[in-house]
Amino acid sequence: AIINGEDFSGCSIIKMNEGIDSGPILEQEKYKIESDDTVLTIHEKTFEIFPRLLLKAIEKIEIGDYGGKIQDESKATYYHRRKPEDGEIKWNFSTAHEVYNLVRGLTHPYPGAFTYFKGKKLFLWSSELIDEDIRGIPGRVCFIRDNGVIVVAKDRSLLIKEVQLEGGNIQLSNQILKKQGEKLGIYSKED
Questions:
Q1: CB of 154 within 8 A of CB of 91?
Q2: What is the pLDDT of residues 81-108, one digit of tens each?
Q3: Which side of the chain, N or C, has fewer Cβ within a 10 Å radius?
Q4: What is the 3-state secondary structure (H, E, C) of the chain?
Q5: Torsions phi, psi for 63 (to 5 deg)
Q6: Is pLDDT at 140 greater than 80 in this prediction?
Q7: Contacts by 109-113 with C-beta closer than 8 Å and gap 24+?
Q8: Burial class (CB in 10 A: 0-12, 13-18, 19+), 140
Q9: CB of 31 closer than 8 Å to CB of 101
Q10: In Å, how far from its chain's centre is CA 44?
Q11: What's the pLDDT score for residue 187?
Q12: C-alpha separations of 25 from 8, 33, 47, 68 in Å
């Protein structure tokens, strides 16, 4: 939901049937996805809601209410399974907001959004949208700041904060990306 830029997520208790999440809905609650939510905070919101919904569903079952709300199959949406390569940031094709959402949606405890830097995977663990209108070549480091580096996406720039080179430790991005003009997203060790 974060990666897709959706405004809401939720939790549902569904009576199992032969389909995939297609049974009647016994209980359901949605919540707003805030602009600073990450996959971890979304899990926490869901874990807060789930016990309450489960108790309501059990109470219904105890009094013989097994029905639930029948789902409208014409409104069903299915997503394919994500693969590790789906976490790669495509600087030429992704807006700053899309990169920001990918980083938030794949941060800890997930495996992380990534790009390449000098032949190694560089995982991006946190980022921030900025108000400044900084444009240029996608994937290029424009400015080094105290709290990270400014990198250009397809439409504008964003602040990359915490990163981790493959096999290394999590650091502020300015400890790895130290020069303006460095380019991300290139696999070659020479670049």
A1: yes
A2: 888 899 999 999 999 999 999 999 999 9
A3: C
A4: CCCCCCCEEEEEEECCCCCCCCCCEEEEEEEECCCCCCHHHHHHHHHHHHHHHHHHHHHHHHCCCCCCECCCHHHCCCCCCCCHHHHECCCCCCCHHHHHHHHHHHCCCCCCEEEEECCEEEEECCEEECCCCCCCCCCEEEEEECCEEEEECCCCEEEECEEEECCCCEEEHHHCCCCCCCECCCCCCCC
A5: -95, 10
A6: yes
A7: 109/39, 109/40, 109/43, 110/39, 111/84, 111/87, 112/87, 112/164, 113/87, 113/88, 113/89
A8: middle
A9: no
A10: 15
A11: 61
A12: 18, 22, 18, 5
Computed on alpha carbons and rounded to an integer, the radius of gyration of the chain in Å comes to 21
pLDDT for res 191? 46
Q: Which residue carries 């400015």 as its tokens?
A: 143
Question: Which amino acid, one-letter code, is at 147?
Answer: N
Residue 73's pLDDT is 83
